[in-house]
Design a protein that fits this description.
3 domains; alpha+beta; Alpha-Beta Plaits; 7 helices; elongated; about 25% strand; Structural Genomics Hypothetical 15.5 Kd Protein In mrcA-pckA Intergenic Region, Chain A
């Protein structure tokens, strides 16, 4: 990110409040750049990668700049939505991040009863690059099943001929690894509605628990507990497409 922007506009776009409120904050002396107060929020500042470390608001470091990408360990019972009733993934983030412009969105969705690696970003180009079928980004899931595997599931999923109920196009080939008689790892490159659950249903089984632990070569960080998140580095983003 480069160029300059008015401070009040930047802070408003990051969800800190209205531009008038940002002017009031500056006049109150709580906006500091490199240790010195900025009294006029109409000042233009350079959008450099180190700005969040140099600018603080009321003693706290500036939130990440636009171009934010996150890894979140989605817990069970949380919905990937801005509007649905109940607990939402956005409730796990700082409240002002709901007001960011551009908005922060999930990269695809995990259903309410699926846990694991969820990506969020305010970078529309990155979001579409990850979910675009032409990039074939692999999503890795571990499924716990209600009944023992029959033994033919891996061949069925890899065939490229499996048709899900209500659809007219067969699934792309997927890779399955048996982990135990009632658990398996499944790697898919599509993102159809409830795809993994519907695949096992088509094979005569039922998914009791589902967890995503990897997207591309990016693995869910072991230090992140359910509900915790961290910002992705450029190397993390590159790993998604590895």
């Amino acid at each position: 990110m480069s160029g300059t922007v008015r401070l009040d506009r930047l802070l408003a776009n990051l969800g800190y409040g209205s531009r008038n409120e940002m002017q009031q904050l500056a006049r109150a002396g709580v906006v500091n750049l490199d240790g010195a107060p900025i009294k006029d929020a109409s000042l233009r500042i350079a959008l450099t990668p180190d700005l969040p470390a140099r600018l603080n608001i009321d003693g706290e470091s500036l939130d990440p700049l636009p171009g934010l990408a996150l890894m979140l360990h989605k817990p069970l019972g949380v919905t990937c939505s801005h509007k649905e009733v109940g607990r939402l993934v956005y409730d796990l983030l700082p409240s002002r991040w709901r007001s960011r412009d551009p908005a922060l969105s999930t990269v695809g969705r995990l259903d309410k009863e699926t846990s694991g690696l969820l990506l969020l970003t305010d970078d529309g180009a990155l979001l579409h690059r990850i979910i675009s079928p032409k990039h074939h980004v692999a999503k890795h899931y571990v499924a716990t099943l209600a009944r023992p595997l029959q033994g033919n599931e891996a061949e069925l999923f890899a065939s490229g001929t499996l048709m899900l109920e209500g659809e007219t196009k067969p699934l792309s080939p997927a890779v399955m690894e048996t982990l135990s008689p009632t658990s398996a790892r499944l790697v898919v490159t599509e993102g159809r509605y409830h795809q993994v659950r519907r695949m096992f249903a088509a094979a005569g089984n039922h998914v009791e628990a589902l967890h995503r632990d990897r997207v591309g070569a990016l693995t869910l960080s072991a230090e992140l507990g359910p509900g915790e998140y961290r910002q992705l580095s450029p190397a993390d983003i590159a790993a998604i497409f590895s």
